[in-house]
Amino acid sequence: MKIIDARGLSCPEPVILLRQEMASGEHAYQILVDNHASKENTARYAEHQGYHVQVEEQDGEYTLTFTK
Amino acid sequence: METQVKLTKLASCAGCGAKVGAGTLAAMLEGFHTHTDPRLIVGYDKSDDACVYVVDPQTALVQTTDFFPPIVDDPFLYGQIAAANALSDVYAMGGEPKLALNILCLPEKMDASTVQELLRGGYEKVYEAGAIIAGGHTIHGAEPIYGLAVTGFVHPDKVLTNSGAQPGDALLLTKPLGIGVLTTAAKADLVPEEVLSRIYRQMAALNKAARDIMVRYPVHSCTDVTGFGLLGHSFEMAQGSGCTIHLTADQVPYHPEALELADMGFLPAGAYRNRSYAETGVTCRRDIPRPLMDLFFDPQTSGGLLIALPEAAARACLAQLQDTIPSAACIGYVTAREDNWIVLE
């Protein structure tokens, strides 16, 4: 599974990064973000691309797992 | 010397999306002790667009300031948009801008021609508004910031606050929504050129035409829809007026291209801040698709005027507005206070 570290980035950078990575069309990705807007936005992008989204939160950081 | 500056790359958030959330601002000011002045008829205690100070029975000063990081890469256009946005607060009070001062922050490496284009954009836009830039203040900083402090005039009896809406009023909006989403998606190069030029024209357009038409009608309340989005600014108007604002979702003008981009996650962080500020004040009486709801919370840069006036007068006012501003629409109405501040239907 491809892991993308987008912590420290603000919108729309995490979505842009995710979009670039998802162009390779793998079945699973994981992204780390550290703000609410980036969590919501990357989840939306993955849903829009047909991925199932799972979110875990710990100390204000989010780990989102996208699977197809 | 940097010659190819991509202005928006220097900014961590774009345009009015950089605005501190309404809730955050209110929390910061809680317990802040202020003084009063009988001549200051709109001041710190109101969340209005500008302050108003009565000079004599025929004249009141309107003052405001607004500035933000680059929302576009073209410095001339950035200057124009920032100026149109700052001037708008005077129009939203029913006033006419006359004098302005530049507020400018520059990274040390920015080249002189970029700065000059930026300032020329602002200068020409202010001149178009019938006002003049008389000077300003410039500092160095990590991110560019540009805007203005604007002074205008209004008759003290004709001040339009954001807290005067009355039951029986209709609500008009003069510019379509979606600017925050589209400028965010533009950073990913996902917005077609013709859509970009459409929103650039819109953001650079003064609210002067709308103001000049509006003041011929018995307007009760006005504000401009900017950083807090349609629902944030409607929330302020409803609370300030002690009324409930009903918005007809199907009538609200927006850029259709913004819907899918919102669904794809190109929402500015400000849209989420606006949602957490205003969400509890909103009751939905029908099912509203998520991306449309996003546009209602979307922060607008140099957005349109939101005007409340009696329904009978609103029809004539809207017809006249649409002659020069085709996007103007009647988007709702005002009733006495109901269970919640805003009803979406």
| CATH class category name of the largest domain in chain B | Alpha Beta
Write down the secondary-structure element order of chain B: HEEEHEHEEEHHHEHEHHEHEHEE
CATH H-level superfamily title of chain A: TusA-like domain
Strand order of the largest sheet of chain B: 8-11-7-12-9-13-10
Main sheet makeup of chain B: 7 strands, mixed
Category by helix and strand content of chain A? alpha+beta
* Low-pLDDT windows of residues of chain B: none
Distance between the termini of chain B: 55 Å
Q: Please, how many domains of chain A?
A: 1
- What is the CATH third-level topology name of the largest domain in chain B? Phosphoribosyl-aminoimidazole Synthetase, Chain A, domain 2
Q: What is the helix content of chain A?
A: 25-40%
Give the helices and strands, then pairings.
The complex is a heterodimer of chains A (68) and B (345).
Chain A: E1 2-5, H1 13-22, E2 28-33, H2 36-48, E3 52-58, E4 61-67
Parallel strand pairs in A: 1-2
Antiparallel strand pairs in A: 2-4, 3-4
Helix pairs in contact in A: 1-2
Chain B: H1 22-29, E1 40-42, E2 51-56, E3 59-68, H2 75-92, E4 96-106, H3 112-128, E5 132-140, E6 145-154, E7 169-173, H4 179-186, H5 193-204, H6 208-214, E8 221-224, H7 229-241, E9 243-247, H8 257-263, H9 269-278, E10 282-284, H10 290-297, E11 305-310, H11 311-324, E12 329-336, E13 342-344
Parallel strand pairs in B: 4-5, 9-13, 10-13
Antiparallel strand pairs in B: 1-2, 2-3, 3-6, 4-6, 7-11, 7-12, 8-11, 9-12
Brief summary:
The complex is a heterodimer of chains A (68) and B (345). Chain A contains two helices and four strands; from the N terminus they run βαβαββ. Chain A is an alpha+beta fold.
